[in-house]
Amino acid sequence: MQIQINPGNQVHGYQYVAKEIEAQLTKKLHRFEGYITRIEVHVEDDHQKTGENDKRCLLEARLKHHQPVVASDTAPSYKEAINGAIDKLKRALDSTIGRLSNNG
Hints:
With 104 residues, the protein is an alpha+beta fold. 40% of the residues lie in helices and 31% in strands.
């Protein structure tokens, strides 16, 4: 499973964020490795947004022979946004791959 991380311009400590993302994706999505060819990660700090939830993580999982599955989350910290997006992606993959297994 290839992981491509695209940090926004306002992301400080990119190396730490990248290592955290790779570790969490590998840990939480390992059972989908046979289906996923690549995961694209977009991490942003939206300073224009008011309020606490200005950190955003968007994940796009590219699947073999199927349309990509996308999930995103916003939170006060990168860690929370990353984990929230991964949990949403995991649920979406469960649903998508379950349908593929039932139809194939």
